[in-house]
Design brief:
Layout (H helix, E strand, L loop, with lengths): L1 H13 L11 E7 L9 H17 L3 E3 L2 E3 L1 E7 L4 H13 L5 E2 L5 H14 L3 E3 L15 E3 L5 H14 L4 E7 L2 H16 L3 E8 L7 H10 L3 E5 L2 H14 L5 E4 L6 H7 L6 E4 L12 H12 L7 H19 L3 H10 L2 E3 L2 E3 L1 E2 L2 E2 L6 E5 L2 E6 L12
Length: 387
Amino acid sequence: MKRIVHFIALLLCSLGLIPAQAAEPVRIGYSIAKTGLFAQAAPSQITAYELWANQVNAAGGLDVAGDRRPVELVWFDDESDPAKSAQIYEKLISDEKVDLLLAPWGTPHHLNVAGVVERHGFPMVGNTAASVAVREVQPGNIWFSTSAIPDRIGPELAALAKQSGVKSVAIIANVLPFAQENLQFLVPALEAEGIEIALNESYPPDISDMTGLLSQIKSAGVDGIIALSYPADSFLYMGQAREVGIDVSFEFLLVGPTISAFSQAFGDFADGIVTIGHWSPHQSKWSRAKPFFDAYVAAYEMNPDYLDTALAYMSCEILEQAVATAGLDRDKLRTAIASSTFDTINGKVSFEGVENAVTPTAFLQLQGGDMHLIWPEDIATAGFSPR
């Protein structure tokens, strides 16, 4: 009798009349700066991860070397503390027993987590980390998908400024590491291009008033401003630059203008702002770019962050394609990530050591409320437009 019941159950399942037993989910862990100093940047990364997971599940699950399994995201707030982020990844690997890892936000967090994934031999594709220090990381278990590395940004930004007719600049820089590292390579690059640096000042990360700095810049009479800023101070800069009456032809903010809320907050006044970023939905050579943009807008009713959201989603695409080939075996996964070429929303990506070996260092500009790639020429979707 039991055999007959079992046979009937199998028959009904095969006909789709009763559901088959659900596959075990693939648990994917990460930490994020949900609170603390970098909390303003967190939504750009969280939405990328959520969108990717929802798309994968809607398509039947993650392809794990031929088997489809649903994705389950497991995350914890690292409170913008790199040390806490490392502790969370220890927990994710040792206690939560996650199958895969996604990256935290920011360079210090990535560098702290690098030691954890190396110790456990657990591969992770990074995204929002950008520092020459990434080259000191032991290769093999972590990769960095961005091309916005400071020793490349400096010369490229100086060349763009020169080509755009800039003869003198004022520089203000956050004292946090990414800004200061960019400053280190930017100053000699500007000098090499013959661009005068009329002012060079740094400010604390919790600055609440920039009017003094901006008044100095206005008095200096420069035709270019380079603010090596983070999201919070980029918003502060723009609001107070409008109040002070800053008016220059070339204006660069390091991190922040790619966030949808930036152009919404400042409207036409933000037009012409230049920033780092190497992705745009307007680049038709990248077949995945526009569908990603459209899916994001449909899901969240706003544009994605052209820097962090794009990078986070790219890292998911790379992981997804590697898992389809290698499954969840960490040794096979490590080999697949290190040796394969991936098709992403930012075009083809492959790695040399820990770095993205394909994507060029690039810049974006807000034009008509939209972001366009303006540098380098071979991926540009528009030319530079003076402010």
